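Input for the complex:
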Amino acid sequence: MEPEILELENFLPYRLYRLADAVSREFSGIYKDRHGLTRPEWRTLAGLGQHGTMTATALGEQSAMHKTKVSRAVAELERRRWLIRTADEKDRRIEHLTLTAAGHAAYREMVPLAKAFERELLARLSADEHAAVTSGLAALETSLPQARLRVKSQTL
Amino acid sequence: MEPEILELENFLPYRLYRLADAVSREFSGIYKDRHGLTRPEWRTLAGLGQHGTMTATALGEQSAMHKTKVSRAVAELERRRWLIRTADEKDRRIEHLTLTAAGHAAYREMVPLAKAFERELLARLSADEHAAVTSGLAALETSLPQARLRVKSQTL
DNA sequence: CCAAACTGGTTTCATTTGTAACCATCTAAA
DNA sequence: TTTAGATGGTTACAAATGAAACCAGTTTGG
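Predicted:
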């Protein structure tokens, strides 16, 4: 019996990871070069910009980050005075996070750049290809156990 | 003028990354739990299993890894006696890497598991969805500047 | 021939990451 | 109540990572 061979370049986990890594690396220029943010910091900013006030747990769920990443990102954004924490009245474990004016300014500056980046990425595709990307990703997303898209230890 | 908002969950770089991360994390069980391999080590094994003898540089190109990752992964697999290095006759900087019998055994053990993993992942999709995933990923791959899919500092 | 530039690969150092332990608070059940 | 367990969040520690410096060896152009 023949030795079974795996073609790495056609292996789904590998292709996905490599693509995500390449895209993410290129995109990171926008938040890293301009403001020296890490990815978790960018996601935190994006989450708060999008939703207004959130708790750290909610942030982790929305942006699929481990709670330690959230904790560190929040600490850094707080240090920059891009966000403030306010204690919850009823439950003193919880803190509500909100962007400051400076945080909002950074967010407003970055959103158009992010959108332009995505637009340019997709502009290289035909309409059919664009549709395939969209529906392919959506299909994979719904196919994976939801829990896996969140961060493991968040859910349990 | 309204504040522009970015919906993170629909943002392509984020979706790709989250998906890749979830899939990769789940897949990593196969090489991590069984053999305590890291992802670079797994990729190195996969590359050598697939192509036979390769140089470290070739490995980095094939599997999109930074050369330091390759170097470390190779060192570890060598420590396990899963591969051996042989010097090149003409160019003494180069070393050719080959799996040992033990390395091959591990490879042969893992390939079917990897294939089963992928099969199960795709089995949850309809034929159309499967096609969309395939063509969507392919489209993105060809659309990104080739260089970006390799590792930056490899190419330059 | 010889120096400059280049290439394959390793190492060092600072940063980022994940796991697990941890503290504080809250909830529920006896 | 009291106490055992959950939950929000932080911290400590070890491992993984990336950038840049580095050490051979090799090639190139004068």
